[in-house]
Structures are given as C-alpha cells and as structure tokens.
Amino acid sequence: MRPLNPIDFLFLSLEKRQQPMHVGGLFLFELPKNAPATFIHDLVTDIRQSKAFPVSPFNHKLDGLFWSDDEEFDLDHHFRHISLPQPGRIRELLIYISQEHSALIDRAKPLWTCHIIEGIEGNRFAMYFKIHHAMIDGIAGMRLIEKSLSHSPTENSIVPPWCVKSKRAQRLEQAQKQSKIKTILGSLKLQAKATPQVVKELSQTVFKDLGRNPDHVSTFQAPCTIFNQRVSSSRRFAAQSFDLDRFRRIAKTLNMTINDVVLAVCSGALRQYLINQNALPQKPLIAMVPASLRTDDSDQGNRITMILANLATHKADPMDRIRLIKRSVQNAKARFSRMSSNQILGYSALVYAPAGLNMISGAMPKHQAFNLVISNVPGPQEPLYWNGAKLDALYPASIVMDGQALNITMTSYLDKLEVGLIACRRSVPKMQSLLGLLEDEIQTFEKLIDNKPHDNDALKHAG
Is 133 assigned a catalytic role? Predict the structure, then answer.
C-alpha cells in the first residue's frame, strides 16, 4: 500500500469528463522479416494466455488516499486488440489514438489500458498505452516501457509492460510492509525537515525576484490566448519525427543546450501559428516545463517539478527569443540547485497551489499560470525490439485541461526527436499545422548558423 503524494492527488482532483488526466504513448513496430501472417495474433494470444499477474504499479487501484493491490484483476478490461480499416494509413491511426485518448479510464480498476493495433501500412503494427498521471510521470513511464522491450532482435520473449518487475519493486516486496500511520508519519517528517529551506526560497522569490528580476517568471505573467479557454472532451493527436542531430548542431553552434533550442523552435512555431490565427498576444507566452527530480532507478509515482519558461513570442528575431528563453530557464534552475528534491517538491506545492486550486475550482477562468506545457523526456538511445519486431518510433501523448488546450511533448529515441501534440479539437483549429511550423523554425535556425560562418564567435556568446 502506497500513499498518494500531493502531485498524485492533484492529478486525480483535476480529472473530469472533458479533462482526462492520463498520459500515453504510441509505439510503432516493424514486423520482423519473414514473420508469419499470424505474428500479431500469436503475440496477443501469448499475452492473454500467459496468466502473468501485473506488478506494481499496474496492479494498484485507488483506495481512498492510498494505492492498494487489485485482488480481482481482469486483463480483458485493460488489454485490447484491434485492426485499422484499410488502407491503414497513419491518418487512420492518429484518428483512433485521438478518440481513445479522449476517453476516461475506469477508476474502479487500475488506471491503465493497452491496445495492440494491426493493419498499419508499411508492414507495421502499433501499441498504444495510456496510464493515469497520478500513477506515473513521463520519466517513470519511459523506464517501464524500456524495461519491457529487448535490445536483441533475436530474443523471443513476449513480456507485456505491466508484468516487468523493476529491481526497486523487488526490493520493496522483500522489505517489511509499513502501516498507514508509519508511512504518513515518515512523509510528514520529511516535509518538516524540508520546511526551513522552502521558507527561505519563498522569501527570496517574494521579496527579491517578483517585479525586480527580469529573468524571473511568475505565475501571474501569462497572457490570455486561444490556448487558454475551457476545453471539450474531444482531442486531436498529431505526431512527427525530427532528426536530433539538427538540434545538436544548432545548440553547439549557438552555445545553447538542446532544451534551449527545443523551446526556441516551439516558440517560433507557436508565434507563427498565432499570427496565422490573428491571435498573437503582445505579451510573451509562458510555458510550463516539467523537470524530473529522480536521482535513482525508480519507476513509480510522480517525482517532478515545474519550470516556468518565458517563450519570448513577442520577439520577431529568433536570436532574441532563444536568449530570453535561456535566461528564464537558467534562473529557475539556479533556484532549484539550492534545494534537495523534497525541498523542491515542497516549494513547488506552495508556489503552484493557487494555480492548482484555480484549475480545480475554475474560480478565475481568465487567469492562467502558464499558457501551455512543453515537455521533453529523454528516451532510449539503442534500438529496442519486442519479440523480434523493431521499435520504429514512439510518440508521447499527454494532457490538456481547462486553460491549457495544447500540450507539446517530446522524447528522444536513437537519433530522432519524437514529437507528440495533443489539443482540444474545438479550441485549437488546424493544430496539425504546428508540425510544419516546427520544421520551418528548425530551418530558420539552420539558415541562421549557415549564413554567418564568420560570426560564430559572436553567436557562441549569445547566451
């Protein structure tokens, strides 16, 4: 039995019919050469007949303020096998994912589902996996999926993700189970220990940074945009792969981090999208960028905080934008570097509590702490296989909610940056055009560094 932490509780409290709070991933596999016509059918049959019981956290269901084991687990409730109608284009696949990502997960059961999807063009099949954000964050989810796959194309193991037991889970099973009271007291003790530094950093934020530090981004700066309105229950999902070396080259030339470049590319694309919609605000958009606090091999629960980044969308010059983005992110990182992970969680809970309460209550519908979420999750750097089928691409699908109708989530795989966009279908028209605008912005930076071969020293000092 594991208690809900404050972030778990927040994700559960935010959920409503038009606002599902699960994250997901679309995994595209290439069928092995000379695979029999029954390959996918055999894979699904083996999974259903394995009788393997799910491991933590996939066997956990809600029990008040705790996660408890589901003693009546029913695989058929969670695992589904479907085939796309011909011709099985990526368009049809993305429509199916959009529909499934719009549906709530039954809270009476463990909060996840898995879909095996066949009939995809290019001799491919897919796995779509979704799990409630209260159970897991992006880093933990990526680790679990990676552990369920193989690094060998000849390994014929068909272990589903929900049956892969992590080393940490094994250690926890061997340890003596704590009582609820002992668990709560331990949690309160850690929070009390973190309090002095949290108070110190809050004082720094209130009395020194607010209104005085131009690089500090507060929860009161985000302008109202078309992304910041109430959402419907209908979602649109779009995805694309980009060459990661393009981002590395830009980052190296400009003396920036890859994350700086990613945010700058997103900023330019969003700026142009809003211009196309005649909806660009005079003030810059603010992005909430999740940051992992994991320092071990754990793969359960939520250990994340939030960085608010100034996207500088009011600036026409891409170099002006990327400089401002870098400074705002560095300011937040400098603050967190002075705190432990528990202190950061405590600080974040207090700073973002008003924003969370506003999201839950809707008391101030025209105020938002940020305009959208942009997340970049590191992924596997080596090829992965499932029963000999090579993982070709993996696209993350995240959350939108009232006040944040667009979410951009990325992950790396091999030499690619995999981008997944999720949006409210009603609130964000022609959302898929953002994929082309991202490509345009990458090309803008490539032309910038290629056209100034004798000015590289100046570019390297841009930050």
Answer: yes
